[in-house]
Amino acid sequence: MNDMYWPWPHFKPSELSCKCCGALPDELDTDLLDKLENLRALLGKPLHINSGHRCRKHNLLVGGAAYSQHKNLAVDVSLTGHDLLKMFDTAKGLGFLGIGLGDSFIHLDMRRKIDGHQPSRKLTVWYYSL
Predict the structure, then answer these.
(1) Among 7, 47, 92, 94, which has the highest number of CB atoms less than 10 A from its own CB?
(2) Is the C-alpha dihedral spanning 72, 14, 47, 61 positive or negative?
């Protein structure tokens, strides 16, 4: 997608694309991106994306789950400069359906169908352990 027509002013395609090949999903999850833009506005601070889309190869290399939402579009957002509970509550209020809580990041997704597997479309929250 051309940056000129990119409707999410606080996020660049390059920060959401795969870190190994620069690809974005064939069909962008505009609902996720709209919610991400709203999250940034409500928190009033920049959001640093640690991980966005992952191609199959990159997902394997980082040990991602077989049906990882990152294979479409999900984001891991750095918690640096943010309060985890405030970000969690705001993300939940905006309607993110997949929320993973880590020590230094929060994972956000919309629980989309991946490789024929449809996860529950209800709010799912999990914790990453060390």
Answers:
(1) 47
(2) positive
CA distance 53 to 44: 24
Residue 129: name the closest of 102, 108, 98 by CA. 102
CA gyration radius, the chain: 14
CA distances (Å), 12 to each of 1, 24, 32, 80, in order?
Answer: 10, 11, 14, 19
CA–CA gap between residue 19 and residue 125 (Å, rounded): 25
Largest interatomic CA distance in the chain:
41
What would the two tokens of residue 119 be? 């996860």
Per-residue pLDDT of the chain (130 residues; tens, 9 = 90+): 545 689 999 999 999 999 999 999 989 999 999 999 999 999 999 999 999 999 999 999 999 999 999 999 999 999 999 999 999 999 999 999 999 999 999 999 999 999 889 998 899 999 997 5
